[in-house]
Amino acid sequence: MSIVLGNQLSNVAAQTTLDLQGIVTSMRSSGMTDSAISATLMSDLTTGGRIFGNYRNQVKNTVKSGVSMAGSNGSEGRFLDKGVKEFQWVTVSAKPCPDCERRLGETGTMEYWRTVGKPQSGFSVCQQNCQCQLIAADYNGENLDKPLVRGAKPKKVPLPTTKINTKKLIEENDWVEDFVRVTLKTAPEETVINLLSSDFTRLEATALLKHIKKIDEDMYRYMKKEPKFLSSYQKNVDKWIRAVEVEGRIDAAYYFEEYRDVRDYLHAELIDSLREHGHKIRNLESFRKSTHKLYRVGDTMGGYNSFFMDKGQAMSYMKRFGVDEIAEYEVRGLHIIPTQSGASEVFVANENIISQKWLDL
Q1: How many CA atoms lie within 13 A of 64 on its CB side?
Q2: How does pLDDT run along the chain (361 residues), one tens digit per residue?
Q3: CA–CA separation, 323 and 203 (whole Å)
Q4: DSSP secondary structure string for all residues of 240-266
Q5: Can you state the percent helix, strand and coil of the chain, rounding each to 5?
Q6: How many other C-beta atoms lie within 10 A of the C-beta of residue 345?
Q7: Which helix (H) or strand (E) holds 320?
Q8: Which ranges of 82-175 does DSSP label H, i.e. alpha helix?
Q9: 245-262: b or e for each residue (b if 16 or more CB lie within 10 Å)?
Q10: Cα distances (angstroms) measured from residue 70 to each of 75, 76, 190, 300
Q11: Nearest to 127 by CA among 99, 106, 108, 107
Q12: Alpha-helix runs per DSSP H in 118-188
């Protein structure tokens, strides 16, 4: 069965790779830059979009099918051990596929069913989604969902009542918080617990997962080491802030979008600053997925535009320059590029603005 599941997962991965190659080729043909393509794919990955969301669902369905196959194989082994020779095809679904519907009530030996195709073997229209079962042909009961050959009941193991000190476990294993946060981006919680169970008991792994999901992420871990290209980013931002050179803002955006460590460092700094001003932000991932309100004096233009994250700063700027209009914009955190100017100024590509409304002052 492991070979079958391995092949199915390989097919899913291969199909997703082909889809990705086709989408990237199409994006490049339409004129998108590599950094824009990378940002689009990253957004799809973090939000469970059409590409990676479909991949995740296929993997989930394959694993679910594997659990069902394991149960069917276990039942088959029990029947054969008890001397059952003939097996009857039973459809469990209320609306079976045409292939399975034709087999309803048909009987044969296990060798026969292996030859023509067992449930979930892939012979039918429903493929691995098949819910049909093979039961002992001489079984006359109506409760087909109940076990026909009872095995020994497993002994109940009492759950320990000891309280788990998750804070101590995290202090003693400084890798675990990073591991949980990164793995949760692409894997379901049950998978994360199973992976943690190689270093902790299952109860400890479950408690760690729940605890880490609830605590605010420490931004310092993204700022321990200054990124190699952070200084290049800062030089270009200075060109924009001090000399109002548009090229400086464009070049700064390149370093932000191209280098993940630069992006993580700057966003971590920004989150720390926002927390100091009362914003409740759980972690880096939630900041990037969420929409945020930005403020700008006047309308936007093509390319990158400057905004204030603080409405009060925008109003001060408005009064200083004698302008009487402020607009409020909605943007995902993923696309917000900090300037480190200390005045809550950020900039965003015009194409990444979700909505705009003029404020009544």
Answers
A1: 11
A2: 455 555 555 666 667 676 777 777 877 887 778 887 787 777 776 666 666 666 666 665 665 565 556 556 666 777 777 778 888 888 776 778 888 888 888 888 888 888 888 887 778 877 767 778 887 777 655 554 444 444 555 666 655 556 788 888 888 888 888 788 778 777 888 888 888 888 899 899 998 888 887 767 778 778 888 899 999 999 999 988 887 888 888 999 999 999 999 999 999 989 888 888 888 888 888 899 999 999 998 888 889 998 998 888 888 888 887 777 889 999 999 999 998 876 678 999 999 999 999 887 6
A3: 60
A4: HHHH--HHHHHHHHHHHHH-HHHHHHH
A5: 55, 10, 35
A6: 21
A7: helix 311-320
A8: 98-103, 110-116, 166-172
A9: eeebbbbbbebbbebeeb
A10: 9, 10, 18, 59
A11: 99
A12: 166-172, 176-184
- Running DSSP on this structure, what letter comes out for residue 171? H
End-to-end alpha-carbon separation of the chain, Å?
67
- In angstroms, the Cα distances linking 337 to 54, 179, 264, 265, 344 are 30, 26, 11, 11, 11
String of b and e for 63-89 (b: at least 16 CB within 10 Å)?
bebbebbeebeebbeebeeeebeebbb
- Find the radius of gyration of the CA atoms of the chain: 29
Place of tokens 């519907």: 101
The first and second tokens of residue 178, run together, are 């990073």
Cα–Cα distance, 308 to 277 (Å, whole number): 14
